[in-house]
Amino acid sequence: MSDNSAQVPQHVAIIMDGNGRWAQKRLMPRTYGHKKGVEATRQAISFYAKSGVSQLTLFAFSSENWNRPKDEVSTLMSLFISSLQKNTEELHTNGIRIRFIGDRTAFSEKLINQIEESEKITLNNKVMTLNIAANYGGQWDILQAVQKLAQKVESREISAADISSELFVTELSLAGSPDPDLFIRTGGEKRISNFLLWQIAYAELFFTDVLWPDFSVEEMQQSLETFASRQRRFGKTAEQLKA
Ligand code: IPE
Ligand code: IPE
Ligand code: MG
Description:
It is a single chain. By secondary structure, the chain is α/β, with parallel strands linked by helices. The protein has one domain (8-137, 179-242): Undecaprenyl pyrophosphate synthetase (3-Layer(aba) Sandwich), CATH 3.40.1180.10. The chain is built from eight helices and six strands. Strand 3 (96-101), helix 4 and strand 4 (128-136) form a beta-alpha-beta unit. Helix 1 (19-25) crosses helix 2, helix 2 (30-50) runs parallel beside helix 3 (70-93) and helix 3 packs parallel to helix 4. The radius of gyration is 19 Å and the shape is globular. One 3-methylbut-3-enyl trihydrogen diphosphate binds next to helix 1.
């Protein structure tokens, strides 16, 4: 890994894709892939935290994933509950804060309670914040922020002219977190699939064909090396950055 800590992304966001295909390649049901995916997730959390990343945002379930077969959706919901039950204590010991982003109101009471408990236990942890995007959609996020601001305009708390990008981001679900520096998608697809839309405006994109359950420490290392080799210009010229 690069020893220049300035080159380590502060915030990494990952679309963990390819569980279903990983299982199907082994003639196993897709749900087997999701179970394997949990292992890769544990490894990724530990790797990026040790690498000095301070925010890790994982896409676990999109607002569109409700359209999958019923048994797959219910397996995923059970996996969320059991993974939180099994891993909250260890994450807490390792100084990881758990925060869910997305519309949790659609989940079962049991899952909502578990989410609240995991968030509460880990609230003051400082090593890394783990944002889990569940029933999340980038368009939903922007819309809910717009609605909250519109309500404030309606109640005359603010005026329309007060709506700046600084104010807008305070209503997004990742409020308080810096924007992702590195965006990773495993599983070969080159698309955003309604993940963070506003927040990845200037993220470096890293796509790999490796399926999520196979996303190894070597691959994670590669993602950081690739990031360190990129020149982020934010609209400026390369010459300006050298100066
Ligand atoms: C990602 O893997 C996990 C979720 C969407 C919950 P997929 O289940 O999308 O796996 P593929 O893309 O079908 O292989
Ligand atoms: C994106 O993967 C959502 C998650 C990884 C949770 P999908 O597999 O749902 O994305 P599409 O349908 O291929 O775009
Ligand atoms: Mg997929």
